[in-house]
Amino acid sequence: MTDIRIRFDGISKWYGSLCVVDNLDLDIAKGQFVSLLGPSGSGKTTLLMMLAGFETPTKGRVLVDGEPVDHLPTYRRDMGVVFQSYALFPHMSVGENIAFPLQMRGVGAAEIGERVARALDMVQLSAMRDRRPSQLSGGQQQRVALARALVFEPRVVLMDEPLGALDKQLREQMQLDIRALHNRLGLTIVFVTHDQSEALTMSDRIAVLNKGKIEQIGTPREIYDEPHTRFVAEFIGETNLAEGTVESVAGAEARIALKRGGHVIAGLSGKVAAGQDVLLSIRPERIELKDGTVATGNSIAARVADCVYQGDHLRVQLDGSAHGFIVRLDRKSREWQPGAEVVAEFRPADCRVIAP
Ligand SMILES: Nc1ncnc2c1ncn2[C@@H]1O[C@H](COP(=O)(O)OP(=O)(O)OP(=O)(O)O)[C@@H](O)[C@H]1O
Ligand SMILES: [Mg+2]
């Protein structure tokens, strides 16, 4: 990777005997939007706090533009930060809160006025410029915090679940707004979330965190289509899992004997060997259903347990003979009756081998 803006170099964080971040390496390129995605307690906030300078690593270094920043206080790191809690100045108005980072940097009054107006417009709070934070809703306060972090166009913006308090509509609008701002200003953004669809929507790359380690890092497409571990497959979107044994390997594909009978060809993300026990991961929307009782090609024979119309799609539950797979069909597909005998088909590339 060229032009690395942020480097976590062997970073660990211990609280007493609890290891919260575990010898973690991560490079973030200039201008990239990287999400840290993981369940509660996986170390996302701790990692962000070490980058911002609010926490000190127990071991390892943080580098920005090639320079270690461990000795630098937060305000000297040129980072805009949006916290999980809003941390606005209660005695200042909305406009004064947003103007504050510009005043700290000696920006002239006329330009401050202009930039604050633009930032207020961006978060749709122009009408509330003179209010105090205590006179705003939680979502409005969070938008002020966002405007305050972005208004001085820092080289790095750190956001910890900044949209958590917003309702769905505003949240989706803000996702697109932040994304547009990132593209327009070329900001490097590190964005913490435990919402997988938010991470998929916004990121250039997603780092999936589990127990203080990066379980996998990649583009949204790589993370979704080629999960390397069961944790990633199950945490990002919904998936079907089946147990099997590798029979043979040819290039980036393997032939797998399923524990419940039958064979399928599946795509490989890592190395496996003949005889090895593996899991298969198949996304519900990558499966097609056909009439029939005999599985030929890449398929499994099964019975329909249930079929539910969900507005934008049909959700079909197969019975135990097909591992209880869930199938997500286009809403215009035919409805399947419970008990119907079907063949569930999928392409080898849509069926991923995961080494347990
Ligand atoms: N100051 C502290 N002292 C002791 N333990 C801490 C401290 N701060 C965090 N932890 C612990 O570190 C672990 C990771 O916390 P962290 O806040 O980084 O998780 P997170 O991934 O941000 O979770 P969430 O999604 O709930 O915000 C948790 O088990 C937490 O209890
Ligand atoms: Mg957190």
For the biggest sheet, the summary is: 6 strands, mixed
Q: How many whole angstroms does the radius of gyration measure?
A: 24 Å
Tally of helical runs: 8
SSE order, one letter for each helix or strand? EEEHEEEHHHEHEHEEHHEEEEEEEEEE
Instruction: Indicate the percent of residues in helices.
Output: 10-25%
Gap between N and C termini: 30 Å
Listed once per kind, the bound small molecules are: adenosine-5'-triphosphate, magnesium ion
Reading off the top of the CATH hierarchy, the class of the largest domain is best stated as: Alpha Beta
- CATH structural fold name of the largest domain: Rossmann fold
Shape: elongated
Main attributes of the structure:
356 residues, Rossmann fold, OB fold (Dihydrolipoamide Acetyltransferase, E2P), six-stranded mixed β-sheet, 36% strand, binds adenosine-5'-triphosphate, five-stranded mixed barrel
Structure overview:
By secondary structure, the protein is of the alpha+beta class. It has 2 domains: 4-230, 3-Layer(aba) Sandwich (Rossmann fold), CATH 3.40.50; 238-354, OB fold (Dihydrolipoamide Acetyltransferase, E2P), CATH 2.40.50.100. The chain contains 8 helices and 20 strands. The strands form 4 sheets. It has a 6-stranded mixed β-sheet with strand order 6-7-8-3-9-10, sandwiched between helices. It has a 5-stranded mixed β-barrel with strand order 11-12-13-20-14. Strands 15-19-16-17-18 form a 5-stranded antiparallel β-sheet, with no helix packed on it. α2 crosses α3 (109-122) and α3 (109-122) packs across α4 (138-150). The structure holds adenosine-5'-triphosphate and magnesium ion (MG). Magnesium ion is lined by residues 44-45, 84, 160.
